[in-house]
Structures are given as C-alpha cells and as structure tokens.
Amino acid sequence: MIRSLPCSRLYITGYRFYITLFYIFLIMPLVTICILAFNDSHYIALPWQGFSLDWFFADTNERLGLFKDTNLLLSIWTSFKTGFFVALFSTVVGTMAALLFEEENFRLKGLLYFLALAPLVIPGVVLGISILLSSTNAGLYLEDTFGVDVEFLRPSFWLVVIGQFSFGATYVMLLVSARLKKFDRTLEEAALSLRATRLQVIYLITLPFLRPAIIGAFIVAFLISFSNFNTTIFLVGSDPTLPVDLYSRIKFSSTPVLNAVSFMIVAFITLAASISFFLHRKSE
Amino acid sequence: MKKSNSTFYLLITPVLLWLLALIVIPHLDMLFRSFRFETDDGLWVFSLNNYLAFFEDSIYWFTFVQTALYSIGVTILAFVVTFPVAFFLTKVVGKRYSSFMTLLLLIPIWIGELVTVYGWMILLRDNGVINSFLLKIGVIDTPVEMLFTNFSMTIGLLYISMLFMIVPMMSALESMDDSLIEAASDLGASKWTIFRQIVIPYTTPGIVSGGIIVFMLVIGDYVAPNILGGKSSLWFTEQIYNKFLATFNWSEGAAFGFLLLLLSSSIVWVALKLSGQKLDKVGS
To answer: Per residue in A222-250, pLDDT tens?
Structure first.
C-alpha cells in the first residue's frame, strides 16, 4: 500500500494504470492545442492538413497570424499591464495585512480577518457585479454632486485592476502569513531592545525574512490576474484582457489563431514551471 | 513586545480601505440594489419584486437547484478522482518522480481555464480529436455527440477545479506518519479498513479545504458551462451574466447575485460545521 509495505502485483499494476490514465486526461487538451497550432487548416480542429506556421506569422485576407493580429497583441499587452498592477497593489496591501493580523492586536481583529478571507468564499461573479454596482453608484453620485466625471469608476482598465486586486490581496496575505508563522520572534525583540523603531524592525528584519514569500506571492497574484475571467468580464471597458478577448473569439469567430495563442501560453507556463523546478532542485 | 501606534495605523489604513471599499460597501450596495425596483413612472421604490421574479419563473429556481446539486456532485467526483493521485504522489511513488509529477499538476492550474476549456472543446467536438480517433479505429461509425452536453460540461468543470483539491490533500498526507499505516497493516487490517479508519480521518482537514475551494470554483464558474454546456446545462452564473450584460436589469441581477452568495456561503458553512473546521484553515 505504501513504499515500505509489500503489495500484490495486481494492485500495483492497477494503481499505476489509473495514475497513467489520470495524467493522460490531464495533458490531453494541452497537447492537442499545441499540435493543432501548427495545423495548415482554416478550422480549429482536425483533420491534420500538414505543418504550417501561418497561424503565427501569416498576414493575408484569409489568415491572420498571432504576431500580425494587432487586436490580439493589444489584449495580451493589456493583460500584462493589468497583471503587473494587480500584483503590485496586492503584494503591498496583502503583505501589510499579513503583518497586521500576525503581529498586532486590536479590537474587531477577528471580524476584519474574516472579511479579508471572504473573497475565498465569494464567487468571482458576485465580486464582479458588486464592485460594478457600487463603482457606478459612486460615479453617478460624484457627477451629480460635484459635476466631475471619474473615469476609473466606469468599466475600464483601472476598474479591472481594482476588481482583481480585491481578491488578489487575500491570496498574497495567505502566502505571506504562512511564512510569517515560521518567523523567529526573538529576532524582532532583540532589535527592539537595541532601540530600533518598529518601522526599522519591519524594514530591516521582517521584510528581508519574508522576501522569498513576497516574490512568490507577486508571481501568484500576476498569474491569477492574467487568467481571470469571471470578475473581469463585468468591469472591462473598451480594452479587453486576453481571457475576455479569447472568450469572445471562441464564442463568435474561432480561427486557429486561438490554438496559436494557447500554444504560447502553454509553452510559457511550462517553461516558467520547469525553470523554477530546476532552480528549486539546485538549491536543495 | 512594545508596539508603536504609528506603525499600527500605517498598516491598518490600507487594509481597512481595501476591506471597506471593495468588500463591505459593494456587497451592501448589491443587497440594497436587490430591493430596489423601478416602477412604470420611472420611480425607484423599495420592493421584493426582484426576488419574486426568481420564484415566479420556474427556469430560475430550477437552474439554481441544478447548479447547487451539480456543484456538490462535481466536488465529490473531484475527490474520488484525485484522492488516489494525492496518495500515490505522497506515499507510493519514489521521491524523485513525485516532485516532477507534482509539477505537472500545477501547469494546468496556471495556464488558466479559458485555454484548457478551449482544449476540451477541440477534443470533444463532432469532428474533434476523440471522435476522429474512435472513428479511425472503428469503434463507432458516426461521431458521438459529446460537446454541448451535460457530459462535456462536467468534464470541463472537473478539469478546471480538481487540481485545486490535490494540493491541500497532499500536504495533509505528507504530515501523516507512515508507521501508522504499517502498524495497522501488521495488526492485520485490510486496505479498505486502513483507508477508512486511518487515512481518511487523518486527511479530513485537507479534504474539506480542498473540497470548499473546488466547490466555490465550480458554483461560480461561467466559462465551462457556457462554452462546453448544451441547452439543458443551465448554470446560475449565466442568468446573472444575462441580467447584467444582456437585458441590463441590474436590480434583478443584484438579487440573483445575492441569492448565489447566500447559497454558496450556506453550503460552505454547513461543510465547515460538519467537519468542525475554521475558515482560515481553508486558505492555508
């Protein structure tokens, strides 16, 4: 049953067979997209018509490749920008929240902590519509009362950033808190007794200790933002992010350029994962 | 430890802003809006009409119930499918393979649901990869209709959510001492007994937190039901999208959003109560 216990041959073979099936199930859609990205065809699926790079580089009336499709490139760029700002804001506020809940004591702490965890159990759709509703209300109020038009309160790039930040900060907080729990408090106490101020302690001792977790949390927040659809769709303005653009193409105008984009994403993530894997292994 | 007040305020201000402006106020706004109704004269009045609309039209509450039952079903399915994998990776396979195989599990998570759901769409189409393969080897004569059914929707929902369950189950299993299983086995316990009496009770925290994450992802998902589902695969998030982005009836949409939030949080609450867990364990 486990490594140290002997088992019947049938049991082991059966178990391995199941695991193999599971992994086939797991990588089948990814491998399929990657292969079909190079299919010399006008249709997103089979039959295989031969190898071609058209869906990456072609620029004809019939075929518009990924690197020539300005709308698609623009939505990829929007997603990168969104991801960067969401990761930045989430990392700053999420780290502050982790420090606050791990190191400080105050009234209503339990309630605030519950609220900070709430995005885990609020469906993304609900988060999206509630932020859309209240930002629209706030925008209307400002316009009626002061006559000013605040652009980021309408569906726009910055509203998407705000919406994704609202749950990104929760994930950062959890990742940083997990590392903070392993922190040796006597280091802080030693510094404080040597007359360091509280801010100096955080800046010189706590933050350097948290650095790996903060960098990791930044990357996680970026990736969460980059693939988010459920919340984004309600807040998006005239500049769609990549998932929103992909969705409307899948629904209304699918060409194999979708395979090409998907291939790029799969290749990028696999590469990044492998690099982190080997770096991790080296450091062990 | 001595705390300085200025640091405390520096930490709590952004956190309070985040929680009030993006979590508390938007949801109060949504609740408020769900009781507002525009009369024929264009006046906004307090009313229960938005909720009455939900109960009067059977399609709405039918979708509501179907979404709830399906989400619970997919969560159970995800547990059944992934538990053997989590056990295999932590207890059965050698360390060398296990880290590589775990890495493979993370890749589809980061690729994002739009790409993976799209991959399943290509696989399951009438002229898709699976049908072409089955036709070629002669198992079937005509393509089997798989896409746009409840089957394809379930596959999609399972695929996008199940991996989030493996990680918490693996960390629970990792902390479990192998000698517990060895002792039980020496005393003559069967595999089933060991599994039911030792492994499952020990892993319950991991199963519950993983299950809640899976459930939330499934019940709040829009992409898989919308792209892979058929005419009968109604999903409650789709009703909310329609209210907001197609018919622009935001008041009814807010009521529906609130009902979805109520549904998901009460099911999560019951799951936490039944297993005696706290919400903050879910995140970690």
So the answer is: 988 988 898 999 998 888 899 998 898 88
Q: Check A30 against B107: CB less than 8 A apart.
A: yes
% of chain B beyond a pLDDT of 70: 96
User: Contact, A89 vs A161, CB < 8 A?
Assistant: yes
DSSP class of residue A48 equals: P
List chain A domain ranges.
1-64+256-284, 80-254
Give the integer Cα–Cα distance in Å for A130 and B49. Answer: 19
Sign of CA dihedral A36, A38, A40, A44: positive
Cβ atoms within 10 Å of A250's Cβ, excluding its own: 18
Q: A80-254 — its CATH code?
A: 1.10.3720.10
* Beta bridge mates, A64: A59
Residue located via tokens 């919340």: A231
* Interface touch B181/A2, C-beta < 8 Å: yes
Handedness of CA A119, A122, A128, A132 (dihedral sign): negative
Q: Cβ distance B260 to B284 under 8 Å?
A: no
Asked if A26 and B105 come within 8 Å (Cβ–Cβ), the reply is yes
Does residue A170 contact residue B284 with C-beta atoms inside 8 Å? no
Triad B146, B150, B156: Cα angle to 5° = 80
From B136's Cα to the closest Cα of chain A, the distance in A is 12
Facing B119 at nearest CB: one of A32, A46, A233:
A32
Give the 3-state secondary structure of residue A201: helix
**Candidate from A27, A134, A227 with C-beta closest to B26:** A134
Q: What are the structure tokens assigned to B142, written together?
A: 């005509």
* Greatest alpha-carbon span in chain B: 80
pLDDT of A192 above 60: yes
In order of their start, the domains of chain B are: 50-283 (1.10.3720.10)
Interchain CB distance below 8 Å, B111 and A266: yes
Residues B196, B179: Cα–Cα separation, whole Å:
16
Identify which of B29, B66, A94, B151 has the alpha carbon closest to the alpha carbon of residue A102.
A94
